[in-house]
Amino acid sequence: MSIDIETARRVAKLARIAVPENELPELANEFSAILGFIEQLNEVDVDGIEPMTSVTPQRLKRRDDVVNDGGQQEAVLKNAPDAREGFFAVPKVVE
To answer: I need a labelling partner for 39 at 20 to 30 A (CA). Which of 24, 69, 91, 93 fits?
Structure first.
């Protein structure tokens, strides 16, 4: 598939990328090369092949899911402009 300069200009505009007019032909060629590579990948028969997350088999490290408070209440509240009784104090918004 070939991308023309007008399509490259439109893609750049949609992506909010400022591309000078003299660089549009090169951008169109790059887009065409990318689409050509994708077409090559689509030709590969992948029926019956499991997706992989890595080329080397590895087991993910796991940890126990333990609920805790993080142990940082004092450090967090130290940054608050107003803290009372272990909580953030905020102005009343409902009467």
So the answer is: 24
